[in-house]
Design goal:
single chain, mainly alpha, 4 helices, 65% helix, elongated
Length: 86
């Protein structure tokens, strides 16, 4: 009898295998995001706002003229979502 047991810890992630199956990981992630926010009117805007806030606000340090960056990103994403839905 063969018994399969999970490895312990985050260091056990095989990055080479993850890279080989990156397309599958992309499609599964995209599917989960679409399913999660399908029923909400601005659900995708919230997901994008989180990404924009983390990437552009924290990592790239894009200036927002003193306005909190989540508000700055939301002000740009809401009209975009409105025209995208039309």
């Amino acid at each position: 009898m063969i018994r399969i047991q999970p490895t312990e810890g985050i260091l056990s992630i095989n990055l080479r295998e993850l890279w080989n199956y990156r397309e599958l990981l992309y499609f599964l992630t995209w599917r989960d995001i679409k399913v999660r926010y399908k029923q909400t009117a601005i659900g995708v805007a919230w997901a994008l706002m989180v990404v924009f806030t983390l990437f552009f606000g924290r990592l790239a340090k894009i200036p927002s003229e003193g306005i909190p960056y989540p508000v700055f990103a939301l002000a740009g994403l809401l009209p975009w979502q409105l025209f995208l839905a039309l």
